[in-house]
Every structure is written in C-alpha cells, then in structure tokens.
Amino acid sequence: MEKELVFATHNPHKLEEVRQMLPPGFRLLSLSDIGCMETIPETAETLEGNARLKAAHVQQHYGYDCIADDTGLEVEALNGAPGVYSARYAGPEGNAKANCEKLLTALADTDHRSARFRTIIALTEGDTFHYFEGVAQGEILRAPQGEGGFGYDPIFRPTGHSRSFAELTRDEKNRISHRGKAFRALQAFMEDAGAHKPG
User: What's this model's pTM, rounded to 2 decimal places?
Assistant: First the structure.
C-alpha cells in the first residue's frame, strides 16, 4: 500500500520533479490536492525555520506527513543578505526583476561578488523532523544574462561555469543547483529508509 506524502507547493512542475525522485511506495500530493489553499506563514528567521513551519502546518491541520522547502540567496559582501528574505527583498509583492535590480545596486561599488544559493528541505515523519541541505556556490554578475530560470537566476553564475543559471537548460541547472542537491539528499534518505523497512 502506498504511503501518502504532501509536498508543500501548488506548483505542478515542482511537484512532478519531486515525484520522479521518490522511490516506489509513495504517493505525492500537492497543497491543492488536500485543499490547503490558505497562505502558510513563513515568519521564521532562518530557511530551516520556514521549511519546518510549512511542513508542520500541513501535518497539524491536514494530518499528512509533509515535505517543505525554502531557498535563499546569501551574498558575502552583504553579510548573507538577502538570505531568508530573498523572495521579498525589494518588497512584499515578491517582484523578481525588482529584487535583482536592488541587489545589483547594492553591489554596484564592489568587486567582491561571491554568493551562494541554499535550499533547506524539512520532512515530517510523525513527531520527527529531518532536514536536507543543498548549496550552489557562485557569484553575482554585473548585469542579467539569459531568459530562462526564475528569481535571481539571470544574475547568478555558478562556480566553474561561464553562463548564468538563466542560460543553462533545466537539466544542466538541476545537476548543479542547490535545489537539485537538496532533493537528491532527500531521495537518498527515502530510498535508504525504504530498503530498511521490515517485511
């Protein structure tokens, strides 16, 4: 019998991506599938805290074990900002273009442009929380490059590459991205747990 697990997203593309990573025996549901249409507060001061808030909300209010993720861009010259506030760096409306412009302005007078994307995944399993991390090191470009991706992708160039995240194909990006690494860590944990189930 399949175990039902919720991924805290309404995005069908993200849902399908994670479905492909899960080992047999799991049925992955979205927030829409369980009727969770309210905004889940993300008021923690850390990525770990926000991922935990989302996963715990689903478990407490809907009774499902849950996977939830949060991602931030951490810029060395800005002491780790925008970090947990990455999505609303330029304002609560979460405008990606405005966020990029504000970041480029903040770094306009420095050549110190090292940065990293970091994703944290929280998984609830009864009363237990498991966390998985993925990091992509790189630097902030001086101007946007590329039309693909989303968020800060056009101004982030991963270490060892000549193109921005927005210039990579989806497969190329997934192989090296923070989110891809975090979900592969989750996948390895789930497969290992499945291999050690009694019976």
Answer: 0.90
The rounded Cα 110 to chain-centroid distance in angstroms is 28
For 34-64, write each residue's pLDDT tens digit.
999 999 988 999 999 999 999 999 999 999 9
Strand runs labelled E in 1-127: 3-7, 26-29, 66-75, 82-83, 114-125
Query: Residue 129's domain spans which residues?
Result: 3-195
How many domains does one find in the chain?
1
Strand pairing partners for 138?
115, 158
The residue annotated as part of the active site, out of 70, 153, 171, 192, is 70
- 127 as an active site residue: the answer is no
Q: Residue 103: which of 124, 119, 117 has the closest Cα?
A: 117
CATH of the domain at 169: 3.90.950.10
Q: What's the angle, vertex CA 77, arms to CA 74 and CA 81, rounded to 5?
A: 35
Give just the sign of the alpha carbon dihedral 11, 16, 21, 24: positive
